[in-house]
Amino acid sequence: MADDLAWSDFEVESDVPGPLSLVGTFVVEQIIRTLSKSIINQPMTHRASRVPAPDGEAISRLLESLRQLMFPGFFGPMLEAEADLDALVQRELDEVEKDLVSQCRIAFRYWRATGDTGDPHDLTEHEEQSCIKRADMVSSEFLESLPEVRRLLALDVLAAFEGDPAARHTDEIILCYPSIRALTVYRLAHELHLMEVPLLPRMMCEQAHRETGIDIHPGASIGESFFIDHGTGVVIGETTRIGNRCKLYQGVTLGARSFPKDESGRIVKGGQRHPVLEDDVVIYAGATILGGDTVIGARTEVAGGVFVTSSVPADHVVAAPKARTRVISRET
Question: Against a cut of 0.85, is the pTM above it?
C-alpha cells in the first residue's frame, strides 16, 4: 500500500490557520496584555519608545571599510596600479567617516539617554548638541589614529609569520589567520575605547568574537608584535595588560579571580581585575591566569593547562606536575 502513495497525499491546504488562530481571540488578547505589561514593568529589557542603539549592520559595514584600509588589495577592490592608492584611501575614508560619525552620535545619544541606571529619558536640546559635538570630535581623532593602528597590525602580522612554522607567506597570515582578524577589530575598537566612546567598541569586538572565537575586550592593553596561535577559546579581559612580543595559544584565559562587592552586595566595577604579562611571555594552550595582582614576568613561559593565580618572576617556566601515563595492551 505504501508504494501507491503519492506526494499529493501529503500536501497541506494553504488556508491552515496560524498558531495564534488556534488558541482563540480571547487568549491571544490576554497574551498580548500580559506581555505588554511585563515589558513595561521591566524597563531594562526594552527600548521600544526611546533612542536607538548602534546598528549591527552599520558596524559590520564600518569594520569592512576599515579592514580594507588596514589591508588594501587583500580585502575590497584590487588596485590596477599604486597610483590609484590615494583614490582608494579617499573613497574608503569617506565610507568610514560616514558610518563612524553616525554610529558615534547614536552611541553617545543612547548612553546619555539611558545613563548608568538603564532608565531611559528624553534628551534635552543641549544634550543632543553635546552628543553630536563629542561624536564629531572623536571621529576626527579616530581617523588620525589609523596610521598607527596599521603600523601595529603590520607588526602583528610579522610576529605571526615568524612565530608559526606552518606559515609560508605573510599573505597567508592576513587572509587566513583568525587572530589577525580579531586583532584588527580589537586595535581599532581600542582606540575608540580610549576616547571613551560608549557601547560601540564592545559591539565591534563582539562581532569579531562571534566570527573567530577569540574574545578580546576593547579595554585590554596589548603591546607590539602580539600573536595568538590558532586562537579558538582565547579570553582576554578588560583590564589585562600585555607587553611586547607576547604569544598565546588556543584556550588561554586571562581573567579575573574575584570581584569585590559594595555594602549592598553588588559587584564593584572598575579596578585592575586581570593579569599583567610583561614582554616576551609565552602562554601555551589551555592555561588559565587570573587576578589583577598577578604579574607574569618577562620571558616567562607558562605550560599548557596550568592554573596560575599568583605572580611569577621573570625568566621562569611554570608547569604542572607531569601526569602519569599508562599504556595498556588491548590483548590483555
Answer: yes
Q: How does DSSP classify residue 265? A: S
Helices (H) and strands (E) in the chain, counts: 8, 14
Residue 264, C-beta contacts closer than 8 angstroms, at least 6 positions apart: none
pLDDT over 80 (residue 8):
no
Which residue carries 620571558 as its cell?
299
Q: How far is CA 79 from CA 83, 86, 93, 172, 175, in A?
A: 9, 11, 16, 19, 17
Domains recognised in the chain with CATH numbers: 48-213 (1.10.3130.10), 220-262+269-332 (2.160.10.10)
Q: With 70 as the cut, is the pLDDT of residue 9 above it?
A: no
pLDDT of 88-137, one tens digit each?
A: 899 999 999 999 999 999 999 999 888 765 566 788 899 999 999 999 99
Q: How confident is the prediction for the chain on average, in pLDDT?
A: 90
Could you tell me which residues come within 8 angstroms of residue 49 by beta carbon, excluding any fewer than 6 positions away? 120
Alpha-carbon span 162 to 166, nearest angstrom: 10
pLDDT digits (tens, 9 = 90+) for 24-79: 677 888 889 999 999 888 877 777 666 788 999 999 999 999 999 999 989 988 77
C-alpha span between 240 and 217 (Å, rounded): 9
Q: 294: helix, coil or strand?
A: coil
CA 91 to chain centre: 26
Alpha helices in the chain (DSSP H): 19-23, 25-41, 56-70, 85-114, 125-163, 170-176, 178-194, 200-212
Placement of cell 544634550 in the chain: 127
C-alpha closest to that of 254 among 233, 230, 237, 242: 237
pLDDT bracket for residue 83 (50, 70, 90): confident
Cell of 192: 575608540
